[in-house]
Each structure stands twice: as structure tokens, then as C-alpha cells.
Design brief:
Largest sheet: 7 strands, mixed
CATH class: Alpha Beta
CATH architecture: 3-Layer(aba) Sandwich
Strand content: 25-35%
Number of helices: 6
Radius of gyration: 14 Å
CATH superfamily: 5'-nuclease
Number of domains: 1
Helix content: 25-40%
Shape: globular
Strand order of the largest sheet: 1-7-6-5-2-3-4
Number of strands: 7
Order of helices and strands: EEHHEHEHEHEHE
């Protein structure tokens, strides 16, 4: 279940959507985020071309397996996932792969990636794991802000 805080985007089956999930930041017990809910948001915006979950080296095999079973490509990095996610999202927005960039995080570090995508003509969406975990700066940088669990 999710609540659209600001709605500017209309679903478009011809748009290619890329969903980039900051796993360590939102897959926490206090947020109770479900990967199926994240996928539902992305599919509601268009054709999902990319579903990626970024995790650090502490990710459990069970989490990786569950994400893959739900259609996510899992990217495991050593250390902080923010740089890898931001670089990948920016590159795919820039090269024309994506029409809609969706970042699920509560981390303001992704604001420049959303801003860049917007400058190159890509629609942007920020997904927060609940009001408690919402970054207003991240949501304000996106064309649409969605809060899960409300």
C-alpha cells in the first residue's frame, strides 16, 4: 500500500521505468517495506525495464534469493551502496535507457541523481519507506513523491 504525495505522472505503457532500491537504507525492520509494493509502484508507471536492489556485503542469502524471486536484479557492493546506485541510475538516465527514474530511499544523497535525470528529460519519482523515513529534499527533487505504508 502506498500514498502518492504529489502526482504529476500518469501511467504510460510505452515508458521504460527503472527502479533503483537502496536496500540498506529502506529494508529495515522499522519500515516494513515489501519488495512487491516497490515493484507495484514501478509497474504502475509504465513498462519496467530495470528492477535493481542494491545491497552491501552484509546482505543475507535469504534476502538476495527473495529479491531475485520477485524479479529484482541484485547488486551487492562492498561498503556503501549509494555511489554505485547513483552512478548506475545517472548513467542509465543519461544514455536514454529510461523514461522514468524511480529511486526508493530516504537518503538525500540521491537528490543530484534525480535532478540530473530531470535535466535530461527523464521523469523522476522518489519513494520513501513511510513518513518517518521520508526525506523532504529527495521528494522535492522528484516529479513525484510516493510514501509507502500510508
Amino acid at each position: 500500500m502506498f500514498d502518492r504525495v504529489r502526482t504529476r505522472l500518469e501511467p504510460d505503457e510505452t515508458s521504460t521505468v527503472g527502479l533503483f532500491v537502496d536496500g540498506p537504507n529502506i529494508l529495515r525492520d522499522e519500515f516494513d517495506v515489501d519488495l512487491d509494493d516497490l515493484r507495484e509502484v514501478a509497474t504502475g508507471l509504465g513498462r519496467t525495464g530495470i528492477l535493481r536492489l542494491y545491497l552491501d556485503e552484509h546482505a543475507t542469502p535469504g534476502l538476495i534469493q527473495a529479491a531475485e524471486a520477485r524479479g529484482f536484479e541484485v547488486v551487492v557492493t562492498s561498503g556503501d551502496v549509494d555511489v554505485k546506485l547513483a552512478v548506475d541510475a545517472t548513467a542509465l538516465a543519461t544514455d536514454g535507457t529510461l523514461d522514468v527514474l524511480v529511486i526508493a530511499s530516504r537518503d538525500t544523497d540521491f537528490k543530484p541523481a534525480l535532478e540530473h535525470a530531470g535535466r535530461v528529460g527523464v521523469e523522476t519519482v522518489a519513494i520513501a519507506p513511510g513518513s518517518y523515513g521520508r526525506s523532504d529534499a529527495l521528494g522535492n527533487a522528484a516529479d513525484e513523491a510516493i510514501t509507502l505504508g500510508e
